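Hello, quick one for you while I still have it in my head. Could you read through the record and tell me how the tokens relate to the sequence? No rush at all, and the record is pasted right below.
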Amino acid sequence: MATIKDVARLAGVGVGTASRVVSGRGSVAAATAERVRKAIVELEFRPSHAARSLLSGSSQMIGVYIPMLKGTFYTPILGAIDTELRDTGRHMVVAFGCGDGDARQQAIEGIEFLLERGCDGLVLMTNVLIEEDLKALGPKQNKVVILNHWFAGFAEQCFTADHHLGGVLAAQALLKMQHRKFAVIAGPDTSPDNVARIDGFMGELASEGIQANQVVMLKSDFSPEGGWASARSLASSGHEFTALFCANDEMAVGALAYFQQAGISVPGMISVLGYDDTHSAEYSAPQLTSVHIPWRNITLNGLRWLLNQCYGESLPVQRNFGVSVTWRASVGMAPTPRKPSARTKQTVISA
């Protein structure tokens, strides 16, 4: 395999001159540059990633931190980042939460891992860090973009959606279908975006005269397993409800699977509404109605802002992201209560 020294020798120039032609930096006479380019073609020279990094002064790599490497939520986000970077001749390095520390410590260690590998900038999709963690990065703090979280001191670097509005829209969708009896499967209280969407949902119900003590709420972990277990608990609780709001699609899909196994018709007996509108919502049974958060748009705009910071590009950056409801088959009109007859007792469907 040809090296930069071979190129310089064939072109009859010094290694420094050949390097300037390869990197595109520095002044080289036109005739000399042409000789170097011809030598590159003749030798089929391709600089290694390490060599390109030395020549350009950057690794052309962006580090990405996510809390976990599983499920249907993060995979499309990583795919969008990878495609965008490859289109510009760059690559990503991914770190995710692991180890014995708590979630914040895992995130800090993941960031250190990415910086040690020479990443020019960082995409962070985690809500466990505090502003002091970003300030501790020193000069690198200006080449970090935060997705799905907001810091007052780093507002320009934060790209997220209005999750409170998402919760409001979820409640309005179910109220529109005449539902008045509700259950909720929430995510962890440590997740600010979860808190925002649940607050929006409960606030909208309260504005329609449905108070918090009339809604049964279980807290889970955003996983399908958590949705399954929570739906099973609701089904055995004796609490009567006709609509279930899940704080993400993965828990909603788990709940749908339990209801199907238990013989509880969706949406005939219970309507189920998810959140995020991920790819899995289209292929659940029945297809899942979900609050649409434009994650791809959020991700790509955050990444483009970062590329502008790291490489002096002028990519367009959008900051307003619309939230809506994608209607599918899992939400229907609230079932009409059956009146008891003289021959039969009234049947109460509880979930």
Notes: The CA atoms of residues 206 and 213 lie 10 Å apart. Confidence is low (pLDDT under 50) at residues 342-351. The radius of gyration is 27 Å.
